[in-house]
Amino acid sequence: MSVPEDKFFRARITHRADIAADLWIIRVEPSGEFRFQPGQYATLGVQGAGKLIERAYSIVSAPHERELEIFIELVPQGELTPLLYSLQTGAELTMRKIPKGRFTLDTKSGRKNHLLLSTVTGIAPFVSYIRALGKDSRENKCDGGHQLYVINAASRSWEFGYREEFEKAAAEFPWLTYVATISRPWEETAPWKGETGRVEDLIRKYADAWGLDGANTSAYLCGHPQMIDNSKGILQRRGFPKESVREEVYWIPAKEPHA
């Protein structure tokens, strides 16, 4: 089955890194110009049995990078991720030529603080923010006084795809604060010295410590739908208005069957 060249790039995987048994990072050469904003997503596709199977993936890379970087979690019963998981360096896949998404950094509202909450692959758009802002900082082009506070959660420490990058960036840039937390510390093979618990367990503690509230902060929630629901409730009870909270849900949970 052919795809129309006016809508799709014939993209190629140039690099693959396996983070855990069900998590991996790929870099993709689009084969054409692909302009996007940090926080947007690309639509990737693989030819399945008689049809093209596509899904949207948040872009890890920043707009100035030549290749697109994507952080993927295997969904064993999913339509696309098992096909993507089988692809190695050099393999081709489709990519729509137009990026989409509005999960971009809010620099217009006047709220200078940004609380970034994520689970596992939900860190992807925040990496794009940091890489883009980092480039601007090094070139003295930063847009006045924005502060980013990241809480990045996973079940186990080896599921963090970008913890070292964030820790290095936080040491370099005064506008970035980063906290990693795991919810299953008893499964660690070496002592874990960071935070423990889920994202929603830490919101109150760190919002208080950082002085974040609904008047001075925009919140961004990305990843697991349960984390997003729970965190939205906590933020609402802390006085965050609806317009100050953005979300990017990575999948919609199946509805429970009626008895």
Question: What does this protein structure show overall?
Answer:
Strand 3 (41-47) and strand 4 (52-58) form a beta hairpin. The protein starts with 7 loop residues before the first strand and ends in a 10-residue tail after the last strand. The chain has two domains: 8-96, Translation factors (Elongation Factor Tu (Ef-tu), domain 3, Beta Barrel); 113-249, Rossmann fold, CATH 3.40.50. Helix 4 (199-210) runs parallel beside helix 5. The protein has helices at residues 81-85, 124-138, 163-172, 199-210, 225-237, and strands spanning 8-20, 23-29, 41-47, 52-58, 68-73, 92-96, 113-119, 147-154, 176-182, 195-196, 217-223, 245-249. It is globular, with a radius of gyration of 19 Å. The chain is built from five helices and twelve strands. The strands form two sheets. A six-stranded antiparallel beta sheet has the order 4-3-6-1-2-5. The chain is α/β, with parallel strands linked by helices.
